[in-house]
What we know:
Elements: H1 7-20, H2 24-33, H3 40-52, H4 56-64, H5 73-85, H6 91-100, H7 112-123, H8 129-141, H9 147-159, H10 163-171, H11 178-190, H12 194-203, H13 209-221, H14 225-237, H15 246-259, H16 262-271, H17 281-293, H18 297-305, H19 312-324, H20 328-340, H21 347-360, H22 363-377, H23 383-395, H24 399-408, H25 415-427, H26 431-442, H27 446-463, H28 466-479, E1 487-492, E2 495-500, H29 509-525, H30 541-549, H31 552-563, E3 570-574, H32 580-592, E4 597-600, E5 605-609, E6 612-613
Parallel strand pairs: 3-4
Antiparallel strand pairs: 1-2, 1-3, 4-5, 5-6
Helix pairs in contact: 1-3, 3-4, 3-5, 4-5, 5-6, 5-7, 7-8, 7-9, 9-10, 9-11, 10-11, 11-12, 11-13, 12-13, 13-14, 13-15, 14-15, 15-16, 15-17, 17-18, 17-19, 18-19, 19-20, 19-21, 20-21, 21-22, 21-23, 22-23, 23-24, 23-25, 24-25, 25-26, 25-27, 26-27, 27-28, 29-31, 29-32
This protein binds one DNA strand through helix 5, helix 7, helix 9, helix 11 and helix 13.
Amino acid sequence: MQTYSSIQFSRKLLCHLLCKRPPISELKKIHAQIIISSHASLTDSLIHCYLHTNNVNVARILFNNYHFPSPPTLVWNLVIRAYSKLQGSLESINLFYQMLTLDHPFSAVPDEYTFTSVITSCAHQKSIVHGEIIHGMVKKNGYLMNLYVANSLINMYAVFARVDDAHKVFNEMSELDVFSWTSLLCAYAKGGKMDIASQLFEEMPARNDVSWAVMISGSVGCGRYAKALAYFCKLGKSEPKVKLNEAIIVCALSACAHLGALDQGSWIHGNIDKNGILETSNVRTALIDMYAKCGRIDCANRVFDNISKPDVHNFTSMISGLSIHGLGRHAICMFNRMLVDKIKPNEVTVLGVLNGCSHSGLVKQGLSIFYNMESSWGIVPKIEHYGCFVDLLGRAGYLAKAFGVVKSMPIDPDIVVWRALLSACRVHRNTYLGERIINHIGQLDSQSRRGAEILLSNLYASLGKWDNVSLVRQVMGKQKHQSDIGCSWIEVNGVVHEFRVADQLHPQIIEIRNKLSEILKRAGLVGYAANITHVSFDLSDEEKEQAVAWHSEKLAIAFGLMSTSPKTSIRVVKNLRTCEDCHSALKAIAKVYDREIIVRDRSRFHTFRDGKCSCNNYW
DNA sequence: CATAGGCCCG
């Protein structure tokens, strides 16, 4: 066997390998033939090689067996960097601390590269404590002046939504680049302060694709979907041209999904290839989600069918899509297919399929999935799963069992669980249980109670206990509690129009309201009568009728009827659950105007056709 | 040898 005795030759070979990234087998073969013990720099190169080919463990063995007092800083940096890429691993921080305790005469000391990597690693940890300690060291040793180090600190504080700390680092920097600005944007976006982020975005001297991505994803993150799409459109027109990337596409599709903006969503789909964006798994997941949430489960299916080996995200998106369309049995089939394909479901997948069971009344199947999720797939039920499970039982009318689950669950029930339970009490008109639940909620801490108060008031209202309603409302008024405002979106000719309950903002609002009055009159002719049991204010009947009349989905539908041609379908998306009154009104409107009306509410799709709804009044 | 962004969820 030939031995590479010449160090020079070995080095050259390793350099060559660094570029080539050979398979591990070849690397090990060469490794075996090299005499490394004689020269440190060869070990260094080998470590480098293994790290380059993602063989961290082999590199680590070489690193641990280093024959010299200490590896040079550069080698430490390589290894620390490799571990920081394994997001969530503590190892690079451990190594960093080890490095500080070295006391050989020629010890390695951390430099600006070390700090950059280790701070990045801190950003991926659950806790920021190490990050703060290391920030302290950086302050002392002067590396704060290094652009990379300071930028990684801004990013770290951004990840933890520590806006003030991020901005403080930013302010103290002598030199800023697009990374500094973008990381700062990210901090404000994560901290939910999109208005300030927008301001900074205008101020910053140069923007690139990531800066735009942060603005778009930030807007999506805080529910400003129309704003996200506005950024996306602005990006398309910006000069000089900014290259689109996968993250931007995924975020824009997500915004379309939330808004039900099918035209814009399919436009993006059609333009993916042209922009050199690959249809990666992430993009496909987003496409499936977008089509499903825009009411086109057929298109979602087509995207899914074109995937040769669907991964867990693709499956999850498809299953959730089928579920919100009320296709629970299909969702279960898809879930089973996934298991056959040996793809392990994650917690979101289980949530999706449970949701499907819930909307299709598949109680038995849902029970079996819920009770087996931990033993079969190792998924410990989280509060979300309990919420869904309680919803499943509650909707189907098993109220006592649902309450039993809530009382015995190992986690404290949250607002969602209570909402599921209380809304089941409302649907099934169970006053007795409703009051017991209210008593229960009364004993909760103030924070959970604040969220529960709106539910309480709604339940009291539906029970006709107006004294209690106003009592709760008074308390809420003092706390300035902001509940979700009813909001609906409709896309007409590629433009998304937004309506809020009792809207005054839309430029054609007067016309729309007149149209709505006329529509409701005609709906009345086929038997629709305003249902005001769920109006939560203590108003006169006439006022209550007005309150439901101006629910945002009715305004959006009126606008849709005004501005689309006869017989075409009308699609509306709403952020809350559809109320009973709107539900019956839409059935009547679909019949009188001979239109298909598709409404996606907070939890599922309703397709109104000829006086009936696809949910069979089960929602 | 180093830094920024993202999907599926009641």
